[in-house]
Amino acid sequence: MRDGFEALYRAHYKAVHRFVNRRLAASADDIVASTFELAYRKLPADHPQPVGWLIRTAANLVKAELRRHERERRALRDAELMRTAPGDGGDLDTLGSLLARMTPAHREVLQLTYWDGLGAAEAAVVLGCSEQAVWKRLSRAKAALRAAWPTESDSDREGAETYA
Questions:
Q1: pTM as predicted
Q2: What digits encode the pLDDT tens for the residues 27-39?
Q3: Alpha-carbon span 118 to 138, nearest angstrom
Q4: Residue 102 · residue 144 · CB < 8 Å
Q5: Domain stop point among 49, 74, 99
Q6: Strand, helix or coil at 27?
Q7: Which listed residue, 23, 84, 86, 137, has the most CB atoms within 10 A of its CB?
Q8: Domain of 35: which CATH number?
């Protein structure tokens, strides 16, 4: 297998690297290395389309890396929101008060999808409905949240009413 793997590596390294580099330049070398490591361990020697297997594996690793970057970005954003002191009128306080006033169905679908990170199919199992129903409920909940979210003109009006 070692001789066959070396030939596989030499024949397809550039194609896999180009594929990964177009999608994720920053960690392309790591993803390519992981792809070939998986190929060494799991790719059958008689696979009819090894380059297809390699590209598919690289694509899955790229997706995983992009999800990891997104989780980090959200964690940083959430940490920034948490630094806002309670009562400052920050977005976190506003969101908390609006969620408390939402219907339980709207609150639950938002929490399952955004806070718990469930997909529509997973949330459908939790809610006991179809995936399409989850999408519709989520759409309605987001619309209700947008409609209730205070705008700058709302705060201007409140300030005017306070001083009047």
A1: 0.50
A2: 899 999 999 999 9
A3: 12
A4: yes
A5: 74
A6: coil
A7: 137
A8: 1.10.1740
